[in-house]
Write a structure and sequence with these properties.
mainly alpha, 11 helices
Length: 279
């Protein structure tokens, strides 16, 4: 461990990271690192991220580089990947796909490095989650511009603007922000759910919830979706045209509108705000 001139050994770094990831997968329902047969690709990709993060954290522990600086690099990579993808240049498009395929190694590094250097912070967590949002937006915008460059059709630009508008104006996200602002302004420390138990969350039917979960899981920001689209982009750019990439983008637009409408519906017609009380 990092005491005086003593640093973490590579073996101890691996033990620390795998212990943390195993615990997180049990709590959050992520990739099962003990059974690769359930989700083979997700398992292999998780190992790729974990091992890459372990190596980087092991090397960076001897430097003055802070975990938050590593997180900022992660954020900038996502933004840069989106810019590269939006430029009609084969080399930059290749660089963009490499960035989006591997940038989460950085995401698996910052938290580990913070634990090793004992510098974990709320700011680091906020930067980390914000970096995920930046990467998600950058990829979608980059994909839209990629299709615009390919087909020279202005409607892709309108769809990009439409996605950004719906994502930025998401009413439920605004409700969360205002609730947190009220919580902090009033110097309170609890958010209490109503005691009344309902058969389904927010008094919404299970069917609607299952539809929402299903739609959300298709072509989302997880690596399996991003990697698949990146593969199609590479094939389309360097080998043979993949015509249905544009239909994937259309679906992402459709999904954004549906999820926005669903949030609006829950807030206004299912008394969502009554399920959370700020004390």
């Amino acid at each position: 461990m990092n005491l005086g001139n003593k640093y973490w050994t590579y073996k101890k770094v691996r033990l620390l990271k795998y212990k943390a990831e195993t615990k997180r997968s049990k709590i959050e329902g992520g990739t099962d690192l003990n059974n690769w047969l359930i989700q083979p690709y997700s398992y292999l990709k998780a190992i790729f991220y974990i091992e890459g993060g372990i190596l980087l954290a092991y090397l960076l522990q001897r430097t003055s580089i802070t975990p938050n600086f590593v997180t900022i690099i992660y954020i900038l990579l996502g933004f840069l990947g989106g810019i590269f993808l939006s430029i009609d240049n084969h080399n930059l498009i290749l660089a963009a796909t490499i960035i989006f395929f591997s940038k989460s190694i950085i995401d698996f590094t910052d938290g580990l490095l913070a634990k090793m250097k004992k510098t974990t912070s709320n700011l680091g967590h906020l930067l980390d989650t914000w970096g995920g949002v930046v990467g998600d937006y950058s990829f979608i915008v980059g994909l839209g511009f990629y299709l615009f460059n390919k087909y020279q059709s202005i409607h892709f630009l309108f769809l990009i603007i439409l996605i950004l508008i719906f994502k930025c104006l998401d009413f439920k996200s605004h409700f969360y922000i205002m609730s947190l602002h009220t919580l902090l302004s009033d110097n309170k420390n609890q958010i209490k759910s109503q005691k009344s138990k309902k058969k389904s969350k927010f008094n919404t039917s299970k069917t609607l919830l299952n539809i929402k979960i299903f739609i959300s899981s298709l072509f989302d920001s997880r690596s399996r979706s991003v990697d698949f689209i990146c593969l199609l982009i590479l094939i389309d750019t360097f080998f043979s045209e993949v015509f249905f990439i544009k239909y994937i983008f259309y679906f992402i637009v459709f999904k954004t509108i549906v999820l926005f409408s669903g949030s609006f519906y829950i807030l206004f017609f299912k008394d969502y705000e009554k399920n959370i009380k700020i004390l």
